[in-house]
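Researcher: Re-running this chain for the archive, since the previous output was lost when a drive failed. Same request as before.
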Amino acid sequence: MTVTIVDDCDTIRQICNVVARRMDFRTECFVDGQEFLDNYTPKAGVVLLGITMPRKNGIEVLIELRELGWNLNVVAMSAGYGKKDTPYFLDLGAKSFLPKPFRPAEVATEINRALGRAV
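Model: Regenerated structure tokens:
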């Protein structure tokens, strides 16, 4: 399985990449929503999706994924929203929401949650 990381912040991509690889996932990274939509091929796994990004933001990506009929395991991530906003992202099709900043252990928990594994 693959963890796909979509975020414009190098540090966030690096942290998520390290966590996913330690969990024995393959990883791929994209710097914004447009690059993701232009290059992604649906596969088993999880998409860690930043919300505030240039070109195409995470909300626009979630809407487009729904329009494409792609049922992906998406974890929305943002510093601009809080846990109280989780229902909003779930309504858009995300499996969960991870507020930034976060600890690496929280990334692992949300990956497992998105895959329906016990956390």
